[in-house]
Amino acid sequence: MNLELAPRFIDEYRRLSTDDQALCDEAIQDLPAAFGYPHQHAGIGVRALRRGVYECRAGLHIRIGFTRHSGTLLLQTVGDHQTIKRWLRRAARGL
After folding, report:
1. Would you state the pLDDT for residue 42?
2. 21: burial class by Cβ within 10 Å (0-12, 13-18, 19+)?
3. Cα-Cα-Cα-Cα dihedral sign, residues 77, 81, 60, 53
4. What gap in Å lies between CA 65 and CA 78, rounded to an integer?
5. What pLDDT was estimated at residue 78?
6. From residue 52, how far is each of 41, 88, 91 by CA, in Å?
7. Which contacts of 33-38 are long-range, i.e. CB under 8 A and separated by 24 or more positions?
8. What integer pLDDT is reported at residue 37 of this predicted model?
9. Which residues of 1-12 are buried (b: 16+ CB within 10 A; e: fewer)?
10. Mean pLDDT, consecutive 10-residue segments, the chain of 95 residues?
11. Largest CA distance in the chain
12. What is the predicted pLDDT for the residue at 93?
């Protein structure tokens, strides 16, 4: 799996604390190898939110929202649970 970063993800990542960025870095590093192997990704908690839309844990309060496009995972957003909920609502409205 390849990874790509959406501009929104980059902006939100930059606003995180250094510690939270480090947690994200670890999760991002593990994500391509773990995606699609449920027994391997228990640590980062990958779960489907909708068809082709997923989230994973980067820490107790940090989540990464991403979409799958063939062999690429596009990291869309990063933040707390509320950030993911807002992202899903916007995506449902096509924004």
Report:
1. 59
2. middle
3. negative
4. 6
5. 98
6. 17, 12, 12
7. 33/1, 35/1, 35/68, 35/73, 36/1
8. 66
9. eeeeebeebeeb
10. 94 97 94 73 79 92 94 96 93 70
11. 34
12. 75
> Is the pTM for the entire model greater than 0.85?
yes
CB 66 within 8 A of CB 13: no
Query: What token pair was written down for 72?
Result: 């690429």
Residues ≥6 apart with Cβ < 8 Å to 70: none
Nearest-angstrom CA–CA distance, 6 and 12: 10
What SS3 string covers the chain?
A: CEEEECHHHHHHHHHCCHHHHHHHHHHHHHHHHHCCCCCCCCCCCCEEEECCEEEEECCCCCEEEEEEECCEEEEEEEECHHHHHHHHHHHHHCC
CB-CB contact of 3 with 71 (8 Å):
no
In this structure, the strands spanning 72-79 and 53-57 are: unpaired
